[in-house]
């Protein structure tokens, strides 16, 4: 029997779930508090420049292909995908750059130039990473996180040691060069925790990086939001923007609908793709599964200070994705996870989509996105934002050997307060809940409420975790769980 389903939020996981549920014939309505769809992947347009406000790295193209193929489509039906070459560059000091190109052979050659014998070690490391990728991304990650037994397969049994070792230890057992170590530890940062706190099994992220490569959808990551919205609408999903859900209504312990813009609307099921903690505040206390104490003890993925900058000239000595790892990673990580505070000397990341994509900036100009990862829950003031902009621009000028201060047409910032205000994010987190050993799979907040019948969750705070590909997978898994309950 076809059912009515309210989805709260329009991030990638909610968009994915809406497609699967509508495909099964249900009547799906998505309620988004903001004026545009896509959640943290919104777009900023200003003076002819276009910026992705959230994700910029398109990794694991196979996951996107899998999603669209579930609907008889492919990404190419909606957007052009460009494989970046180089994938990215990493600065370790003034004019001291390692460039990661688009094939493993070229990357091995770059490694060999830095450390003799490292090409062979890299091949071995990536072979193992590929094996882990096939186990994790082709199989495990699609499991609902209900029971620990989901992780026990003949293949994972052979890898048990890798769940109790860390990426940090694994990388250091093969490589000595600090630059190569930093590059190999970079991909797991997408999972939101320190490499020294991330199981070695997660080296599948290194295969995503070096084995599969980095892509750019023409017109930016927002093209994926547009594609999924188009697909959802073609399947019959209704979207309501500027609709902030105020509460989830109950009859006994059964979800019966939502209150939104002062209107009470009835639905058979409620699925929330909004931040998990916020969703539970839409319920009476007795129906929340996790206490404030629970959330406060969790390891959150970082927040970020972001700047979207329009430059009146093309910049030199940078790539589409450029990482600035010229200061201590350990010290910055300490300020995010161990002793939350603004780091004195921050690492940062910059993206210049207009290097690849003419539509990102007017001719002869450059669009720049700058990102400093920060701890959640720390102070956020206009003065701090400005001071940190100056810090990174000064370093940027020195490292890339060019002046840019006078070429800034405008800059917009986005930080903790905006994450809270715009997305109802817990403590201003940008990337959800980190994937540490104790916050993996069945140890994450559940997709199905244990206290409210007919209420489900999806997105980066639940299973499987942070990132766009996991969000697509999260939407698919939760849609499957809802279907299962309907059949019971
Ligand atoms: C700055 C940044 C950079 C990133 N970079 C990358 C990257 O390069 N590659 C990558 O793969 N991933 C990246 N990520 C992570 C990735 O973007 C996220 O994991 C993913 O987009 C989260 O999707 P989600 O489905 O959990 O929902 P979200 O995007 O969190 O969306 C939740 C939605 O719910 C809405 N909402 C909240 N409360 C309510 C309410 N009461 N009523 C109605 N709506 C509500 C919010 O407005 C929001 O639209 C990045 C994230 C950020 C923030």
Write a structural description.
The protein has helices at residues 12-23, 61-69, 104-114, 118-136, 154-157, 160-164, 167-174, 178-185, 204-212, 222-234, 276-280, 292-297, 329-338, 382-400, 416-423, 468-487; strands spanning 4-8, 27-31, 43-46, 49-52, 81-83, 88-93, 96-100, 215-217, 238-240, 245-251, 254-260, 263-266, 269-272, 303-311, 321-324, 348-351, 366-374, 408-414, 455-457. The model has no long low-confidence stretch (mean pLDDT 97). It starts with a strand and ends with a helix. Helix 1 (12-23) packs parallel to helix 16. Among the domains are: 4-42 and 54-78 and 219-297 and 434-487, FAD/NAD(P)-binding domain (3-Layer(bba) Sandwich); 105-208, no CATH class. It is globular. The strands form five sheets. It has a seven-stranded mixed β-sheet. A five-stranded parallel β-sheet has the order 9-2-1-13-19, with helices on one face. A three-stranded antiparallel β-sheet has the order 10-11-12, with no helix packed on it. The chain is built from 16 helices and 19 strands. Bound molecules: flavin-adenine dinucleotide. Flavin-adenine dinucleotide binds at residues 8-14, 31-34, 39-41, 54-57, 244-245, 273-274, 278, 304, 306, 423-424, 430-432, 459-460, 466-468, 471.
């Amino acid at each position: 029997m076809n059912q009515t389903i309210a989805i709260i939020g329009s991030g990638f996981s909610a968009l994915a779930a809406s497609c699967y549920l509508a495909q099964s014939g249900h009547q799906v309505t998505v309620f988004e508090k903001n004026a545009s769809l896509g959640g943290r992947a919104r777009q900023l347009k200003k003076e002819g420049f276009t910026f992705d406000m959230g994700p910029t790295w398109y990794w694991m193209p196979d996951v996107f292909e899998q999603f669209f193929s579930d609907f008889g489509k492919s990404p190419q039906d909606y957007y052009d995908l460009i494989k970046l070459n180089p994938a990215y560059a990493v600065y370790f000091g003034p004019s001291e750059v390692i460039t990661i190109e688009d094939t493993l052979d070229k990357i091995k050659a770059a490694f060999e130039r830095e450390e003799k014998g490292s090409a062979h070690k890299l091949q071995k490391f990536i072979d193992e990473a590929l094996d882990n990728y096939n186990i994790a991304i082709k199989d495990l990650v699609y499991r609902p996180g209900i029971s620990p037994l989901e992780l026990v397969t003949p293949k994972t049994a052979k890898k048990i040691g890798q769940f109790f070792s860390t990426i940090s230890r694994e990388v250091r057992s093969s490589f000595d060069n600090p630059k190569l170590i930093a590059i190999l530890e970079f991909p797991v940062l997408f999972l939101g925790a320190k490499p020294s706190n991330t199981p070695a099994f997660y080296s599948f992220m290194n295969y995503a990086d070096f084995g599969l490569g980095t892509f750019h959808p023409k017109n930016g990551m927002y093209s994926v939001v547009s594609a999924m919205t188009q697909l959802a609408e073609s399947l019959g999903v209704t979207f309501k923007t500027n609709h902030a859900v105020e509460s989830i209504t109950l009859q006994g312990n059964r979800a019966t609908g939502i209150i939104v813009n002062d209107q009470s609307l009835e639905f058979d099921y409620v699925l929330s793709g909004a931040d998990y903690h916020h969703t539970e505040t839409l319920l009476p206390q007795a129906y929340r599964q996790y206490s404030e104490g629970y959330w406060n003890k969790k390891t959150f993925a970082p927040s970020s200070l972001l700047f979207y900058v329009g430059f009146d000239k093309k910049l030199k000595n940078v790539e589409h994705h450029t990482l600035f790892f010229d200061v201590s990673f350990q010290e910055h990580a300490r300020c995010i996870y161990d002793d939350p505070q603004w780091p004195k000397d921050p690492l940062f990341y910059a993206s210049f989509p207009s290097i690849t994509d003419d539509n990102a900036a007017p001719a002869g100009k450059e669009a720049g996105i700058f990102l400093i990862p920060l701890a959640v829950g720390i102070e956020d003031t206009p003065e701090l934002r400005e001071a940190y902009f100056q810090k990174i621009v000064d370093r940027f000028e020195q490292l890339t050997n060019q002046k840019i201060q006078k070429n800034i047409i405008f800059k917009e910032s986005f930080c903790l307060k905006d994450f809270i205000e715009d997305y109802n994010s817990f403590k201003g987190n940008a990337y959800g809940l980190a994937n540490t050993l104790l916050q993996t799979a069945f140890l994450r907040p559940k997709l199905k409420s244990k206290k409210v019948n007919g209420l489900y969750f999806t997105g980066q705070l639940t299973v499987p975790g942070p990132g766009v590909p996991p969000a697509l997978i999260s939407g698919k898994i939760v849609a499957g769980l809802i279907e299962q309950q309907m059949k019971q």
